[in-house]
Amino acid sequence: MSYSHFDWPEEEIKRVGYRVVDELARYLTHLPDRPVFEPVPGDAVLQMIDTPAPENGHTPDAILDDVIATAMRWPFGQGHPRFYAWVNSTPAVMGIFADAIAAALNPSCAGGNHAAIYIERQVLAWYREMLGLPPSWGGLLVSGGSMAALTALAAARHARAGFDVRRHGLQHPSRTVVVYRSGEAHTCHQKAIELLGIGSAHMRVIPCGPDRRMSVPAFEQAVREDLDRGCTPAAVVTSFGTVNTGAIDSIPDVAAVCRRYGIWLHVDAAYGGPAVLSDRYAAHRTSLALADSVALDPHKWLFVPIEAGAVFVRHPQALREAFSLVPPYIQASAPAGPKTMDPVFGLPWFSEYGFQQTRGFRALKCWMVMKQFGLRGYGAAVERCIALADRLAARIAEAGEFELLEPRGMSIACFRYAPAGATASEVDALNRRLLTALQLGGRYFLSGTTLDGRFYLRACIVNGRATEEDIDGLLPAILAARTS
Question: Half-sphere exposure of residue 424, counting CA atoms within 13 Å on the CB side?
């Protein structure tokens, strides 16, 4: 059949589409039967990275054959019921379909009067409701927690620097801007601080107590010392569910310090935000509204396919003041306001509130997956993940030669195999070997982390397909890996 690259006959779109759906259905339903992870063989790596660009186009079936033989043959394992590494979740099926629909529509969601923009606004309103944030808060969808941090801290820098950062940069002769974070905060915040020109030398790392929460007295003491030096304390990063252990900083106490000194409070709830839907963490919901900005990653515990992040700010104008720069070719004929809307350009554009001008239709998968679950369904899924992590923690505590790191939070369990008589350094080395053997063994996939100078195995369960039987089999699999 001959047709152009763009004008496919309807029957051919259906034929190829049905084959894609068949392959997706086969992959998803048979995923539990295959290894969680298999490394790509060296010869296949060389073939993929060294093959030159094709001179002539391939047929759709040949292209799909290659996809099946490569991308679908050696996935990383996210979605497998025994994948508990990092904070990578099982993708919801409606989100998978949403990506295809969004690609077919292919809108740029910088702004304009089209449905994708209002779907994003609706999604943001739903997430605000979930997190307990007032309707007056604004925000936008971004790629993930890293971009949410960069966006929020850029707004904080502009709002709290004490001079016009957009005009003068950070080359002010008499002001040094300082940002604070806990020792357990995600490293993306240091990246943001460096990219924003504040510099890691002006980032204060606040120690954590035994509960792995930021020490509020140490934070306030650091602020006072910086004020005495003539510095400008601009922002502090706190965590609602750290990625290492699921710890929650004392946000109300940090917020009180921020109010006293005029400091922007950013809460990283990228992983932990959905925990407010559970009975155990529901009481923390009100604390999020004490912040100036909040990050959420729907592609973590809300099971939306990657990429999908969100940032919310107490004062939307703070984002607009930090980012708005409208090129003449997309300026509306009349200014848009809360009650006036240009018929083509619509409401104020999302691109005025963040760095991206071209923005993909991320909202559709968030919207469709929220419709698939509903808040009650999400709450049940979050509760189940927490229960599975509790079950794993109980199994670790019962086992004679394993150490469970306490305190632990949310759906994370950090632990190590520590046979009697082994020194601390020997235990570290042993657990590193066990992690590699476990990951390459194909049955389970965990990550590792270092806490208090010691190496731990780390299981983060944001997995909608994991079962009690999967959890019960993990420690025996680790013990079996000793001889690998």
Answer: 6
Task: Determine the Cα–Cα distance for residues 392 and 469; give it in Å rounded to an integer.
Answer: 11
CA 361 to chain CA centroid, Å, is: 17
428: number of Cβ within 10 Å:
18
Q: How confident is the model at residue 329 (pLDDT cuts 50, 70, 90)?
A: confident
d(CA 80, CA 321): 43
pTM over 0.90: yes
Q: Which residues contact 52 (CB under 8 A, 6 or more apart)?
A: none
User: In angstroms, what CA-CA distances link 27 with 31, 196, 212, 283?
Assistant: 6, 42, 40, 40
C-alpha–C-alpha distance, residues 238 and 179, integer Å: 11
Residues near 285 by beta carbon (within 8 Å), at least 6 away in sequence = 131, 132, 276
pLDDT at 1: 62
Asked if residue 128 lies in contact with residue 135, where contact means CB atoms within 8 angstroms, the answer is yes
The answer to whether the CB of 298 falls within 8 A of the CB of 271 is: no
Q: How far apart are CA 472 and CA 398, in angstroms?
A: 12
Going by their DSSP bridges, the two strands 412-417 and 454-460 should be labelled as antiparallel
Spatial separation of the C-alpha atoms in residues 215 and 250, rounded to whole Å: 9
Decide the pairing of beta strands 454-460 and 447-451. Answer: antiparallel
Q: Which of 293, 276, 123 is nearest to 192 (CA)?
A: 293
Using one digit for the tens of pLDDT, what is the confidence trace for 98-143?
Answer: 999 999 999 999 999 999 999 999 999 999 999 999 999 999 999 9
To the nearest 10 degrees (0 to 180), the angle between helices 10-30 and 60-69 is 10
* Spatial separation of the C-alpha atoms in residues 365 and 101, rounded to whole Å: 9
- Bridge partners of 414, per DSSP, are 458
3-state DSSP assignment of residue 450: strand
| Contact predicate 247/409, CB 8 Å | yes
Give the chain's domains with CATH numbers: 107-360 (3.40.640.10)
Q: What is d(CA 254, CA 290) in angstroms, rounded to the nearest whole number? A: 9
Q: Cα–Cα distance between 228 and 225 in angstroms, integer?
A: 5
- Minimal CA–CA distance to 262: which of 306, 292, 240? 292
